[in-house]
Amino acid sequence: MRGNTEDFRQLFLSGTPLMDVRAPIEFAKGAFPNAQNRPLMNDGERQKVGICYKEQGQQAAIDLGNTLVRGKIKQQRIDQWRAFAEANPNGYLYCFRGGLRSQIVQQWLAEAGVEYPRVVGGYKAMRRFLIDTLDHAVAECPLTLVAGLTGTGKTEVIAALDHSLDLEGHAHHRGSSFGRHATPQPGQIDFENRLAIEALHVLEAGHRSLVLEDEGRIVGSCSVPVELFRTMQAAPLVWLDDSFDNRVSRILGDYVIDMQAEFDELYPEEPDRAFAALSEHLLGSLLRIRKRLGGERHQQLEALMQAALDVHQRTGDEQEHRAWIAALLEHYYDPMYAYQRSGKEERVVFSGTQDEVIDYLRAQRPAQSGPGV
């Protein structure tokens, strides 16, 4: 049998499959990208055992747990654990602290003929490792931020670099009023965990600088970790330029064409429902910035958007959307970004096209110095 492990670094670098035996409510609050929930107890059972533990102590809680999880229920859960172990022979199991629950699962599996190792310290220790990893990366690696007007392709720059952290990707949000996707964002803890794992990979590759997109404190519903955001406020900026037409085309792709594909995938047998979801998304996103647009401007843009949606639905032609996108850039996003840049001008160290910015950022990397600490 492989031994139990506390090599958290290797678990996350290798994407080792993890079986999380905590209750579903715990898993939903925060987990790891490579983990699947196969609980020892469901939420109701966990609550009863927790109350018993507080009132009568550990042994009484263990006895109650054995009463609640027995017979057919116990066998069903052992079967689920066995199936996971057989599908993931290189994996590990864990509970919250690496204590009683994971030991019970390990014992019951062994009694069923399956030897499966656990993570020492459990979820709590792995989470602490990831928090420390991100803090270390922020403290030790100089940051550079990619800034620019909406639609210049900042996300494409981040994707082209191997020493970047993708805030929007991990938040599953494009970082603007129109930025949500067809599927929900991760929870805050999941967002932080994914970000830290990416930082771990960057450090392990020997990089000693980080590039991020210039973001606000909140990306959709996800908050940028406090120390990272504080450090970002003083970081140098690289300003990305592109033509107005290219920006309109890029936003058309992101906000309309790609979003339609997401809704089509969500409702594969219901094209009318998918298009209705796209329309609701676009009109709702515009409504959320009504106060900042002003009532008259909002009405003008809403009319352009609705006309484009009508043509789009009737003919399949997305190009009519260019009209409201161009107006939104001209009257909303560009003035807002110009104002924001005026307060950051002294931090701009380079401006250029996408290729020029990528070349500049690659040239600015410190020499690699071996695996991260």
Please provide a written account of the structure:
This protein has 17 helices and 9 strands. The protein has 373 residues and is of the alpha/beta class. It has 2 domains: 8-120, Oxidized Rhodanese, domain 1 (3-Layer(aba) Sandwich), CATH 3.40.250; 131-373, Rossmann fold (3-Layer(aba) Sandwich). Strand 6 (218-219) and strand 7 (222-223) form a beta hairpin. Helix 7 (122-140) packs across helix 10 (188-204), helix 12 crosses helix 13 and helix 13 (271-288) packs antiparallel against helix 15 (295-315). The chain is globular and about 65 Å long.
Number of domains: 2
Cross-sheet strand order for the largest sheet: 5-4-8-9
Q: How many strands appear in the DSSP assignment?
A: 9
Structural class assignment: alpha/beta
TL;DR of this structure?
The protein has 373 residues and is α/β, with parallel strands linked by helices. It is 59% helix and 9% strand.
Give the SSE map:
Blueprint: H1 8-14, E1 18-20, H2 24-29, E2 35-37, H3 43-56, H4 58-68, H5 71-87, E3 92-94, H6 100-111, H7 122-140, E4 143-148, H8 154-160, H9 167-171, H10 188-204, E5 210-213, E6 218-219, E7 222-223, H11 226-232, E8 237-240, H12 244-266, H13 271-288, H14 290-293, H15 295-315, H16 321-342, E9 348-352, H17 354-363
Parallel strand pairs: 1-2, 1-3, 4-5, 4-8, 8-9
Antiparallel strand pairs: 6-7
Features of the shown structure:
17 helices, 2 domains, alpha/beta, disordered C terminus, 373 residues, 3-stranded parallel sheet, 4-stranded parallel sheet, Oxidized Rhodanese, domain 1
